[in-house]
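Final report, results section. Input specification for complex C-07:
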Amino acid sequence: MSDRIVSIGLGEFSVSVDPETTLVAYGLGSCIGLTLYDPEVGAGGMAHVVLPERPSNSADDGGAKYADTAVDRLAAELERSGGKRGRMVVKMAGGAQLLALPLNGHHWDIGERNINAVRKSLARCGLVLATHDVGGAHGRTLRLHIHDGRVVVSTIGRGEKIL
Amino acid sequence: MSKSIVITRAQYRGARKAVSEGILRAGQSLSTMVGREIGMGTPAIKVVPVRDVPGLAGGPETTVAAAYLGISGDISAHMILCFDLRSAHKLVGYLLEKAPGDPESLEFDFMSRSALSEVGNVTCSSLLNALSDHTGLAIRPSIPVLVVDMAGAILSAALAELGPVGDEAMVIETVFGQEGEAVNGHLFLLPSPEALATIINHLGARAKCPIESSR
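Structure output:
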Protein backbone atom coordinates (compact mmCIF):
# COMPACT_ATOMS: atom_id res chain seq x y z
CA MET A 1 0.00 0.00 0.00
CA SER A 2 0.91 3.65 -0.18
CA ASP A 3 3.55 3.51 -2.82
CA ARG A 4 2.54 6.30 -5.15
CA ILE A 5 4.39 9.36 -3.92
CA VAL A 6 3.05 12.77 -4.90
CA SER A 7 5.46 15.55 -3.97
CA ILE A 8 3.84 18.84 -3.00
CA GLY A 9 6.32 21.59 -3.87
CA LEU A 10 6.52 25.16 -2.56
CA GLY A 11 3.16 26.87 -2.94
CA GLU A 12 1.42 23.79 -4.33
CA PHE A 13 -1.54 21.77 -3.11
CA SER A 14 -3.11 18.50 -4.12
CA VAL A 15 -6.01 16.24 -3.19
CA SER A 16 -6.22 12.48 -3.65
CA VAL A 17 -8.75 9.69 -3.17
CA ASP A 18 -6.33 6.99 -4.29
CA PRO A 19 -5.54 4.71 -1.32
CA GLU A 20 -2.12 3.90 -2.73
CA THR A 21 -1.04 7.52 -2.80
CA THR A 22 1.07 9.30 -0.22
CA LEU A 23 1.24 13.09 -0.36
CA VAL A 24 4.61 14.46 0.75
CA ALA A 25 6.00 17.90 1.50
CA TYR A 26 9.77 17.47 1.73
CA GLY A 27 12.04 19.70 3.76
CA LEU A 28 9.61 22.13 5.39
CA GLY A 29 11.51 24.96 7.04
CA SER A 30 9.51 28.10 7.78
CA CYS A 31 6.84 26.77 5.39
CA ILE A 32 3.75 24.98 6.68
CA GLY A 33 2.54 21.60 5.51
CA LEU A 34 -1.22 21.47 6.07
CA THR A 35 -3.20 18.24 5.74
CA LEU A 36 -6.97 17.75 5.57
CA TYR A 37 -8.45 14.27 5.62
CA ASP A 38 -12.04 13.07 5.46
CA PRO A 39 -12.09 9.52 6.85
CA GLU A 40 -15.64 8.83 5.61
CA VAL A 41 -14.70 9.11 1.97
CA GLY A 42 -10.99 8.31 2.32
CA ALA A 43 -9.98 11.55 0.65
CA GLY A 44 -7.15 13.79 1.75
CA GLY A 45 -5.24 16.85 0.65
CA MET A 46 -2.04 18.68 1.44
CA ALA A 47 -0.90 22.28 0.94
CA HIS A 48 2.67 23.61 1.13
CA VAL A 49 2.24 27.17 2.41
CA VAL A 50 5.20 29.55 2.01
CA LEU A 51 4.09 32.95 3.31
CA PRO A 52 1.35 34.35 5.56
CA GLU A 53 -0.50 36.59 3.14
CA ARG A 54 -0.82 37.40 -0.49
CA PRO A 55 0.47 40.91 -1.25
CA SER A 56 -2.36 43.11 -2.51
CA ASN A 57 -0.39 44.02 -5.64
CA SER A 58 0.40 40.40 -6.50
CA ALA A 59 -0.47 39.49 -10.07
CA ASP A 60 -0.30 35.74 -9.69
CA ASP A 61 -3.09 33.67 -8.18
CA GLY A 62 -0.70 32.21 -5.64
CA GLY A 63 -1.82 28.57 -5.64
CA ALA A 64 -1.26 27.52 -2.04
CA LYS A 65 1.65 29.91 -1.54
CA TYR A 66 -0.17 32.17 0.90
CA ALA A 67 -1.88 31.05 4.11
CA ASP A 68 -4.79 33.47 3.69
CA THR A 69 -5.96 31.81 0.47
CA ALA A 70 -4.42 28.30 0.64
CA VAL A 71 -6.66 26.87 3.38
CA ASP A 72 -9.96 27.65 1.67
CA ARG A 73 -8.62 26.44 -1.66
CA LEU A 74 -7.50 23.12 -0.24
CA ALA A 75 -10.80 22.62 1.62
CA ALA A 76 -12.82 23.47 -1.50
CA GLU A 77 -10.78 21.03 -3.58
CA LEU A 78 -11.35 18.28 -1.01
CA GLU A 79 -15.09 19.04 -1.07
CA ARG A 80 -15.03 18.42 -4.82
CA SER A 81 -13.75 14.91 -4.02
CA GLY A 82 -16.66 14.28 -1.66
CA GLY A 83 -15.16 15.68 1.56
CA LYS A 84 -17.25 17.57 4.09
CA ARG A 85 -15.69 20.38 6.16
CA GLY A 86 -17.34 19.11 9.35
CA ARG A 87 -15.57 15.76 9.02
CA MET A 88 -12.15 16.98 7.95
CA VAL A 89 -9.28 16.07 10.25
CA VAL A 90 -6.84 18.97 10.15
CA LYS A 91 -3.13 18.71 10.96
CA MET A 92 -0.16 20.92 10.33
CA ALA A 93 3.62 20.86 10.65
CA GLY A 94 6.48 23.25 9.94
CA GLY A 95 6.79 26.95 10.74
CA ALA A 96 10.32 26.60 12.10
CA GLN A 97 12.87 29.37 12.34
CA LEU A 98 16.03 27.93 10.83
CA LEU A 99 17.80 31.09 9.82
CA ALA A 100 17.86 33.37 12.83
CA LEU A 101 19.65 36.35 11.36
CA PRO A 102 18.72 40.00 11.22
CA LEU A 103 18.57 41.31 7.69
CA ASN A 104 18.54 45.04 7.05
CA GLY A 105 18.16 45.70 10.74
CA HIS A 106 14.90 43.88 11.28
CA HIS A 107 13.91 40.30 11.27
CA TRP A 108 10.69 38.63 10.29
CA ASP A 109 10.02 35.31 11.88
CA ILE A 110 8.24 33.94 8.85
CA GLY A 111 7.67 30.56 10.55
CA GLU A 112 5.76 32.06 13.47
CA ARG A 113 3.76 34.35 11.19
CA ASN A 114 2.88 31.41 8.95
CA ILE A 115 1.61 29.39 11.92
CA ASN A 116 -0.62 32.25 13.06
CA ALA A 117 -1.90 32.97 9.57
CA VAL A 118 -2.83 29.33 8.98
CA ARG A 119 -4.64 29.18 12.34
CA LYS A 120 -6.61 32.30 11.46
CA SER A 121 -7.50 30.93 8.04
CA LEU A 122 -8.64 27.64 9.54
CA ALA A 123 -10.98 29.45 11.92
CA ARG A 124 -12.37 31.52 9.06
CA CYS A 125 -13.01 28.35 7.03
CA GLY A 126 -14.75 26.58 9.92
CA LEU A 127 -12.00 24.02 10.33
CA VAL A 128 -10.64 22.80 13.66
CA LEU A 129 -6.98 21.92 14.09
CA ALA A 130 -6.70 18.38 15.49
CA THR A 131 -2.98 18.25 16.13
CA HIS A 132 0.23 19.93 15.04
CA ASP A 133 4.02 19.87 15.21
CA VAL A 134 5.22 23.41 14.59
CA GLY A 135 7.93 25.90 15.48
CA GLY A 136 11.40 25.14 16.77
CA ALA A 137 14.50 25.49 14.65
CA HIS A 138 14.56 22.33 12.56
CA GLY A 139 13.30 21.08 9.21
CA ARG A 140 10.51 18.54 8.75
CA THR A 141 9.13 16.27 6.06
CA LEU A 142 5.38 15.68 6.21
CA ARG A 143 3.57 12.67 4.78
CA LEU A 144 -0.16 11.99 4.46
CA HIS A 145 -1.09 8.38 3.68
CA ILE A 146 -4.41 8.45 1.86
CA HIS A 147 -5.41 4.85 2.65
CA ASP A 148 -5.75 5.49 6.39
CA GLY A 149 -5.20 9.22 6.85
CA ARG A 150 -2.02 8.68 8.83
CA VAL A 151 0.16 11.80 9.05
CA VAL A 152 3.85 11.31 9.74
CA VAL A 153 6.49 13.95 10.46
CA SER A 154 10.14 13.04 9.96
CA THR A 155 13.17 15.06 10.92
CA ILE A 156 16.91 14.81 10.82
CA GLY A 157 18.29 13.65 14.14
CA ARG A 158 14.95 13.98 15.95
CA GLY A 159 13.30 10.86 14.64
CA GLU A 160 9.84 10.38 13.25
CA LYS A 161 6.43 10.78 14.80
CA ILE A 162 2.83 10.15 13.93
CA LEU A 163 0.70 13.24 14.31
CA MET B 1 1.13 35.07 -13.35
CA SER B 2 4.37 36.71 -12.32
CA LYS B 3 6.68 38.17 -14.89
CA SER B 4 9.42 35.93 -16.15
CA ILE B 5 12.97 37.01 -15.56
CA VAL B 6 14.43 38.45 -18.77
CA ILE B 7 18.14 39.08 -19.26
CA THR B 8 19.82 40.50 -22.32
CA ARG B 9 22.82 38.78 -23.84
CA ALA B 10 25.16 41.56 -22.65
CA GLN B 11 23.78 41.34 -19.13
CA TYR B 12 24.18 37.58 -19.10
CA ARG B 13 27.79 37.91 -20.28
CA GLY B 14 28.40 40.49 -17.58
CA ALA B 15 26.88 38.25 -14.93
CA ARG B 16 28.90 35.24 -16.05
CA LYS B 17 32.12 37.21 -15.99
CA ALA B 18 31.54 38.59 -12.50
CA VAL B 19 30.40 35.27 -11.13
CA SER B 20 33.21 33.25 -12.73
CA GLU B 21 35.77 35.64 -11.33
CA GLY B 22 34.13 35.50 -7.92
CA ILE B 23 34.07 31.71 -7.89
CA LEU B 24 37.71 31.61 -8.96
CA ARG B 25 38.64 33.92 -6.08
CA ALA B 26 36.50 31.90 -3.70
CA GLY B 27 38.27 28.69 -4.73
CA GLN B 28 41.67 30.29 -4.19
CA SER B 29 40.70 31.63 -0.77
CA LEU B 30 39.24 28.31 0.25
CA SER B 31 42.29 26.35 -0.98
CA THR B 32 44.61 28.67 0.94
CA MET B 33 42.46 28.31 4.02
CA VAL B 34 42.28 24.52 4.08
CA GLY B 35 45.86 24.12 2.87
CA ARG B 36 45.05 22.01 -0.17
CA GLU B 37 43.62 22.46 -3.64
CA ILE B 38 39.82 22.56 -3.64
CA GLY B 39 38.56 22.33 -7.20
CA MET B 40 35.63 24.54 -8.17
CA GLY B 41 33.22 23.62 -10.91
CA THR B 42 32.19 26.11 -13.58
CA PRO B 43 29.47 28.22 -11.98
CA ALA B 44 26.00 28.00 -13.44
CA ILE B 45 23.65 30.96 -13.42
CA LYS B 46 20.20 29.51 -13.52
CA VAL B 47 16.72 30.87 -13.61
CA VAL B 48 14.65 28.06 -12.14
CA PRO B 49 11.06 27.58 -11.03
CA VAL B 50 10.86 28.37 -7.32
CA ARG B 51 9.49 24.90 -6.59
CA ASP B 52 12.76 23.32 -7.79
CA VAL B 53 15.09 25.36 -5.57
CA PRO B 54 14.79 23.19 -2.42
CA GLY B 55 15.95 20.15 -4.40
CA LEU B 56 19.08 21.72 -5.89
CA ALA B 57 21.58 20.57 -3.24
CA GLY B 58 21.25 16.81 -3.68
CA GLY B 59 17.51 16.60 -2.94
CA PRO B 60 15.28 18.35 -0.40
CA GLU B 61 15.83 15.77 2.36
CA THR B 62 19.62 15.57 2.03
CA THR B 63 21.33 16.45 5.28
CA VAL B 64 23.74 19.32 4.83
CA ALA B 65 25.91 21.55 6.97
CA ALA B 66 25.18 25.01 5.63
CA ALA B 67 26.78 28.37 6.30
CA TYR B 68 24.13 31.00 5.75
CA LEU B 69 24.71 34.73 5.28
CA GLY B 70 22.22 37.53 4.87
CA ILE B 71 23.21 40.27 2.45
CA SER B 72 22.26 43.90 2.78
CA GLY B 73 23.39 47.22 1.35
CA ASP B 74 22.24 48.10 -2.18
CA ILE B 75 20.72 44.65 -2.57
CA SER B 76 19.09 42.14 -0.26
CA ALA B 77 19.87 38.52 -0.85
CA HIS B 78 20.88 35.32 0.88
CA MET B 79 23.95 33.23 0.37
CA ILE B 80 24.14 29.63 1.38
CA LEU B 81 27.18 27.43 1.17
CA CYS B 82 26.27 23.84 1.91
CA PHE B 83 28.24 20.66 2.18
CA ASP B 84 26.98 17.12 2.52
CA LEU B 85 27.82 15.67 5.94
CA ARG B 86 30.80 13.61 4.81
CA SER B 87 32.34 16.62 3.06
CA ALA B 88 31.69 18.87 6.02
CA HIS B 89 33.50 16.49 8.38
CA LYS B 90 36.41 16.21 5.92
CA LEU B 91 36.71 19.99 5.64
CA VAL B 92 36.75 20.31 9.42
CA GLY B 93 39.50 17.69 9.50
CA TYR B 94 41.62 19.70 7.04
CA LEU B 95 41.01 22.99 8.82
CA LEU B 96 41.64 21.82 12.35
CA GLU B 97 44.32 19.35 11.30
CA LYS B 98 42.67 16.37 12.88
CA ALA B 99 41.16 13.12 11.68
CA PRO B 100 37.73 13.71 10.11
CA GLY B 101 34.76 12.93 12.37
CA ASP B 102 32.22 10.18 11.77
CA PRO B 103 30.86 11.06 8.30
CA GLU B 104 27.30 10.25 9.39
CA SER B 105 27.39 12.31 12.56
CA LEU B 106 25.13 15.34 12.92
CA GLU B 107 27.25 16.68 15.73
CA PHE B 108 29.76 19.46 15.13
CA ASP B 109 31.51 20.87 18.18
CA PHE B 110 32.08 24.58 18.72
CA MET B 111 35.46 24.65 16.92
CA SER B 112 34.10 22.66 13.98
CA ARG B 113 31.11 24.97 13.68
CA SER B 114 33.30 28.06 13.66
CA ALA B 115 35.62 26.49 11.10
CA LEU B 116 32.73 25.75 8.76
CA SER B 117 31.24 29.21 9.32
CA GLU B 118 34.59 30.72 8.41
CA VAL B 119 34.69 28.67 5.21
CA GLY B 120 31.29 30.15 4.40
CA ASN B 121 32.48 33.62 5.26
CA VAL B 122 35.62 33.45 3.10
CA THR B 123 33.90 31.82 0.14
CA CYS B 124 30.87 34.08 0.10
CA SER B 125 32.93 37.24 0.63
CA SER B 126 35.11 36.38 -2.37
CA LEU B 127 32.09 36.04 -4.62
CA LEU B 128 30.45 39.18 -3.21
CA ASN B 129 33.61 41.24 -3.65
CA ALA B 130 33.81 40.25 -7.29
CA LEU B 131 30.14 41.07 -7.76
CA SER B 132 30.68 44.42 -6.09
CA ASP B 133 33.72 45.18 -8.30
CA HIS B 134 31.70 44.46 -11.43
CA THR B 135 28.57 46.35 -10.48
CA GLY B 136 29.76 49.17 -8.24
CA LEU B 137 27.05 48.13 -5.76
CA ALA B 138 27.63 48.21 -2.01
CA ILE B 139 27.11 44.66 -0.80
CA ARG B 140 27.45 43.79 2.89
CA PRO B 141 27.34 40.22 4.17
CA SER B 142 26.21 39.43 7.71
CA ILE B 143 28.18 37.14 9.95
CA PRO B 144 27.61 33.53 8.94
CA VAL B 145 25.27 31.19 10.79
CA LEU B 146 25.80 27.44 10.63
CA VAL B 147 22.78 25.19 10.24
CA VAL B 148 22.80 21.39 10.04
CA ASP B 149 19.49 20.22 8.63
CA MET B 150 17.57 19.21 5.50
CA ALA B 151 18.80 21.10 2.43
CA GLY B 152 15.22 21.75 1.34
CA ALA B 153 14.24 23.28 4.68
CA ILE B 154 17.21 25.66 4.61
CA LEU B 155 16.79 26.73 0.98
CA SER B 156 13.02 27.19 1.21
CA ALA B 157 13.36 29.18 4.44
CA ALA B 158 15.87 31.48 2.71
CA LEU B 159 13.49 31.95 -0.23
CA ALA B 160 10.59 32.77 2.10
CA GLU B 161 12.72 35.31 3.99
CA LEU B 162 13.17 37.24 0.75
CA GLY B 163 9.50 38.12 0.85
CA PRO B 164 6.87 37.78 -1.84
CA VAL B 165 8.03 34.86 -3.89
CA GLY B 166 7.74 34.97 -7.66
CA ASP B 167 7.45 31.90 -9.85
CA GLU B 168 11.12 31.90 -10.68
CA ALA B 169 14.31 32.43 -8.76
CA MET B 170 17.79 33.17 -9.95
CA VAL B 171 20.34 30.84 -8.50
CA ILE B 172 24.07 30.99 -8.86
CA GLU B 173 25.21 27.49 -8.28
CA THR B 174 28.61 25.97 -8.20
CA VAL B 175 29.84 22.60 -7.13
CA PHE B 176 33.02 22.20 -5.14
CA GLY B 177 35.39 19.41 -5.93
CA GLN B 178 35.26 17.10 -8.91
CA GLU B 179 33.74 13.65 -8.90
CA GLY B 180 35.44 11.31 -6.46
CA GLU B 181 37.18 14.18 -4.72
CA ALA B 182 36.97 14.89 -1.05
CA VAL B 183 34.68 17.87 -0.82
CA ASN B 184 31.27 18.28 -2.38
CA GLY B 185 29.50 21.53 -1.81
CA HIS B 186 26.94 23.83 -3.36
CA LEU B 187 27.03 27.60 -3.25
CA PHE B 188 23.80 29.54 -3.72
CA LEU B 189 23.18 33.22 -4.16
CA LEU B 190 19.46 33.93 -3.88
CA PRO B 191 18.65 37.58 -4.61
CA SER B 192 15.26 39.12 -3.92
CA PRO B 193 13.39 40.00 -7.14
CA GLU B 194 14.32 43.71 -6.69
CA ALA B 195 17.94 42.83 -5.97
CA LEU B 196 18.04 40.71 -9.08
CA ALA B 197 16.84 43.62 -11.21
CA THR B 198 19.43 45.91 -9.57
CA ILE B 199 22.29 43.47 -10.19
CA ILE B 200 21.25 42.84 -13.79
CA ASN B 201 20.92 46.55 -14.59
CA HIS B 202 24.34 47.34 -13.15
CA LEU B 203 25.98 44.40 -14.87
CA GLY B 204 24.47 45.43 -18.18
CA ALA B 205 26.04 48.87 -17.91
CA ARG B 206 29.45 47.48 -17.08
CA ALA B 207 29.36 44.70 -19.65
CA LYS B 208 29.13 47.25 -22.49
CA CYS B 209 32.30 49.10 -21.53
CA PRO B 210 35.22 48.49 -23.95
CA ILE B 211 37.72 47.18 -21.38
CA GLU B 212 35.45 44.35 -20.39
CA SER B 213 34.34 43.37 -23.88
CA SER B 214 37.95 43.20 -25.13
CA ARG B 215 38.50 39.92 -23.34
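Residues 51 and 66 of chain A are 5 Å apart (CA to CA). Chain A has one domain: 4-162. This concludes the modelling results for the funded period.
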